[in-house]
Design a protein that fits this description.
alpha/beta; Aldehyde Dehydrogenase, Chain A, domain 2; 3 domains; seven-stranded mixed sheet; 17 helices
Length: 524
Amino acid sequence: MKAAVTAEERTSEVISYDPATGEEVGRVAVTPVVAVVRSVSDGRRAFAKWKSTSFAERSRLVMAAREVLLAEMDEVASLISRESGKPVAEAFSMEIAPVLDLMQYFARNTEKMLRPAKIGIGIYGLMGRSSRIVYHPLGVVGIIPAWNYPFSIPLGEATMALMAGNTVVIKPSELTPMIGLKIGEIFEKASFPENTVQILSGEGATGAALVEAAPDKIMFTGSVATGKKIAAAAAKNLTSVVLELGGKDPMIVFADANLDLAAGAAVWGAFCNAGQSCSSVERLYVEESVAEELTRKIIEKTKQLKQGTGDQPDVSIGAMSSERQIKIVEDHVEDFRAAGAKIETGGQRNPTLEGLFYEPTVITGAHNEMRAMQEETFGPTLPIATFSTEEEAIRLANDSEFGLTASVWTGNRARGERVAQSIEAGSVCVNEVLYTHGIGQTPWGGFKNSGRGRTHGREGLMELVQPQHIHVNKLALMPDAWWMPYSATAVKTFRKMTTTFATGSLLKTIQLLPQLWKRIKELL
């Protein structure tokens, strides 16, 4: 569902190009500021009805959208590949399949997760009181996703927001506008009510206009710099935000790990989506005694990977998203070279291919003092450093402004979990890597400059509702002892409360009863 734009408002276009071939994928008119503001207003009017729909009806519509996606998934996979440069294999495995799973999970479980919850209130409960939490939708949720997962991120967040009773306005990346339109088309074909889902097209100014239009929540995925700007702009209207920002994710490999599995995981974790995942392995720390062996295995596996256009089924490494992004990778690789690290394989644009192809690059001799070990690369590089002790591995892993994900590889599960709990990251895997964003049931978000708030899982669902506390006095027969007017009896009663009732102990509270009755009789 594309936001309505009049002819006179069509002032410019966003043109989408295939980063692998340079060919035009499509073009769409930029949504002007006045239409952005109108979209949020339209979303609010739609919300007035949508929030009252039953969970059963919301579920029915989400599952209908899921059926539309299933029927068109080959077309969608091709579009994802063409607009983002990733292989069709990754379009299915990392975008379509995970979001299909998320859609069925929240369609079937949101009502249960948002069921009113009773609160235990201790001794107050024995006094005829009860408390519970009920959950209300927020209103209009503005979603501003990144270009690296242009389908699964906005579609998954929109699904959760809709199931919670909100309406949605999505501003896709200017690099992937056609995928954004496809998401709107999926909801439209599923017969969602008008303006429950709207798509805005444009560049950064359109996203800024969406924030300024004061929706009730902003879900942003992107860089730290842009996230800070969005947070500052949202603060003017006290709009709450969820920010999923950058990562410089470490992988720790101990000597007792299965090195064949660790090598395969490192290659996939560093190079899938051409390294353009905020949870990519961007720093690998391996115990010194097995560093040479693990590095050899990684290099061997890397050299087996085929790079090319995403429409080829045997291609593992596709094109990067933009010239700007590939230049960041070149800068970081040159920084490694200048700092004394060794480029074991790769380290350049692919000379046999036209387009934005950077070879998968394995780097040894890296250490944390190198600039490229601190800044987010977001490309197909795998720098390898060594450590000698568990404490050193933890220190090196935590030596970063980021804290999105991490992984620990070891044959000792107890050590794996111990180290995982010591790492400052929102998600830490033991003998797994990268993919937990694809598990819709688990929360996603980071520590430090990797963001604020959560998406996915119950924690992510709670970001999309506002809790309301309902408190009931079922025995409204007498005044409460703490009511006015105060008196000497009141002060004596309140003082005794501090050592009896306030302890939470029923036995001690019984000692208060004579004094409490005196106070109530006084009020009567």
